[in-house]
Design goal:
By secondary structure, this protein is mainly α. The chain is 67% helix and 0% strand.
Length: 73
């Protein structure tokens, strides 16, 4: 498995989750982001991903979540 260096976009986080056979599609982008955050938490707590990768993913998801909320207003 090729190591992941940087996560910059939501697509990068989706690709990370795909590596662990986690596919997220709820139908609403905001909900997808929230579910991805929960899945990232679970992967980290299980010790499957390291702290650096966890923090990168959480930052991307937080930024995307903020953007989605801003656009909804």
């Amino acid at each position: 498995m090729k190591p992941i260096v940087h996560l910059r976009t939501l697509y990068d986080v989706q690709q990370l989750l795909k590596r662990f056979d986690v596919f997220v599609y709820v139908g609403k982008r905001l909900w997808d982001i929230e579910l991805m955050a929960l899945e990232i938490d679970n992967l980290y707590q299980a010790g499957v991903i390291d702290r650096d990768l966890f923090l990168q993913a959480k930052l991307v998801l937080k930024r995307e979540h903020r953007n989605e909320q801003r656009m909804a207003k």
